[in-house]
Amino acid sequence: MTTLVDVAKKANVSKMTVSRVINHPDKVTDELKQLVYEAMRELDYHPNVIAKALANKSTRIIKLCILEDIDTTEPYYMNLMIGIAKTLDLHQYSLQLVTRRNFDIGNCDGYIITGMREADVDWIKKLTKPVVLFGENRYGFDYVDTNNKAGTYLLSQLALKKGYEHLIYIGIDSKESFEYSREAGYIQQVQENRMVPELHRFDNHSHLSEEYVEQNWKNIPKNTAFICASDRLAIGIERAIIRCGGKIPDDFGVTGFDGVFLNQIASPRITTIKQSIIEMGSACGENLLDKIESGETSGPLVFEPKICLGGTLRN
Amino acid sequence: MTTLVDVAKKANVSKMTVSRVINHPDKVTDELKQLVYEAMRELDYHPNVIAKALANKSTRIIKLCILEDIDTTEPYYMNLMIGIAKTLDLHQYSLQLVTRRNFDIGNCDGYIITGMREADVDWIKKLTKPVVLFGENRYGFDYVDTNNKAGTYLLSQLALKKGYEHLIYIGIDSKESFEYSREAGYIQQVQENRMVPELHRFDNHSHLSEEYVEQNWKNIPKNTAFICASDRLAIGIERAIIRCGGKIPDDFGVTGFDGVFLNQIASPRITTIKQSIIEMGSACGENLLDKIESGETSGPLVFEPKICLGGTLRN
DNA sequence: AACTAAACTGTTACCGATAACATGAATACA
DNA sequence: TGTATTCATGTTATCGGTAACAGTTTAGTT
User: Distance from residue B29 (CA) to nucleotide D30 (C1'), in Å?
Assistant: First the structure.
């Protein structure tokens, strides 16, 4: 492996000059810079990341901590990791996948944390290295997420535009920030149209929302659209409506949220929010590296939601 | 952060002794060892992985290169990564996810490669760092895989035991080693029972195997079992049989291979081979780290297949 | 007792980079 | 013309470890 010294010899300068050409090119004359660049090219020089890390007291390691249970059937985490890994790779950082338990073992330059809940706030606050969360939060941590509120707001709006007269919100029974935001989007749209919000909350399992519809079928008027907080819940609603003999999308509408995979097994496909998790993962990485290298906080990064049309809303 | 020197001072020894206690404890007297251990404990000393890596000319980075297109709907890769990451983490190594394109950028201590095809053999041979492949191969590279041959052998055996009189093999139309092995398992079982093998090959899409059965329905005798090289192909077969009015498992049997996820959307569930990709990923990591640290080749690591009973074989 | 080998422990140099300081040349200003 | 200031480059020490070698005991032989 060629080192700084090799390049320095070849270019007839000190190794410090070579180092400067790489890190502070403005402090070296163009003439020497050219010499050094040429030497680097000829020798196919690649800096030794490890030596750099040692000198800088950095590690070039980013820890990714997934706090929720990993549902490996959802490609969500896979996409997230691919997105993050892509960016880190580009910047010569490497990724360490850690759990809450082995979180503290080994150094790193920063953290990406996903699936944070209230109980985690305290220890996250104590971290001394930069952190970016994947998923919105209300504790002031930087994060990357879809604009959840805008998502349900837009879907509700679309449902109304398509002529559904009742909008029922089917939410996830959890106290996480994204859920509040999704509820808020629905509520705002409904209120802007002088309608009364109706919300129900379940654990995020399709059979629970399914059960709900089946048991309340006779009280659900035609021309109702269900705005669901997840595709999972939406699929349950869809199945129940079909089982009860309701017609989708003519008499009933359904919308979901996420659109990562589950939707592929629904028929008709759920109209939902498409999130590009890979892209968001990349952004998450970029965000964190910026923070590490500049030392500045970047603030939250919110992706505007895109509606992914399926067959569960008219037209 | 406490360093070797801090520990050395506290224990009243040279830092070299501390280093020895960590790396060659047999070369230090028990007395000093105790002192050092105590100092380490009191100071909560954790070695600096980066400095170690620099001194050892290592990087503590393992590159994972996925050569096939990543089908993110299959949790396969996710599981693989989780398995690998778990092990690496345990040994304080970190994972770098690379593609064929950025493969050469940056150093590492070893490679895990999955999805290798013939065309890749040459460049893989040229690698100077230890390599472990995920997926069997016939070029002498170390690998981790399920015993593919045993898998189809066992499924064929089971089908025969259940009384199916004809066994048709539905394979993947590719020249990869695992496919040859799966075919070989079927063929061996069939020949041991003095039957004539019948093989068909398709690209790995369910609609292709589905089409095949539909078009040849009248030529397929009752009491036939289809031994398929993948769950994907098996699902196609299953759908076609049902569509054509055949009865599963009474009149027709179907078996798959993989059982990672797709099977979850089949009804009835395919009887298939269950692979614990996470565990195999871990093994892959262990294998590679062994190789890196000992310098010795470990040979292939083959996991014996486990049959996962679904509803596509009688009884 | 003298000599050699083995077993510990300490010293030094080095891994490949960077920051802080030192040096020397060029420019500025009085 | 002499001195202050700036700018470009080189020198040294350092990051936190490890290997190779050197020095000191201790034990074993004759």
Answer: 30
Q: Judge: domain A61-145+277-302, CATH 3.40.50.2300.
A: yes
Q: Nearest residue on chain A to B78, judged by CA atoms? A: A78
Which is more confident, B99 or A131? A131
SS3 per-residue string spanning A201-258: EECCCHHHHHHHHHHCHHHCCCCEEEEECCHHHHHHHHHHHHHCCCCCCCCEEEECCE
Model's pTM, two decimal places?
Answer: 0.82
Q: Which of B4, B63, B94 to mutate to test the interface with A (most CBs of A within 10 A)?
A: B94
Enumerate residues 6+ apart whose C-beta is below 8 A from B152.
B169, B181, B182, B183, B184, B185, B186, B189, B227, B229, B257
- Cβ pair B54:A54 closer than 8 A: yes
For residue B77, what is the nearest residue in chain A, using CA coordinates? A78
**Cα–Cα distance measured from residue A5 to residue A205, given in angstroms and rounded to the nearest whole number:** 61
pLDDT, tens digit (0-9, with 9 covering 90-100), for B252-265? 999 999 866 666 66
Domain borders along chain A are 4-47, 61-145+277-302, 148-275
Tell me which CATH code domain B4-47 carries: 1.10.260.40
Indicate the average pLDDT of chain A: 92
The class level of CATH for B148-275 reads: alpha beta
Is there contact between B154 and strand D, defined as CB under 7 Å from any strand atom?
Answer: no
Task: Determine whether the interchain pair A1/B59 forms a contact, defined as Cβ–Cβ distance below 8 Å.
Answer: no
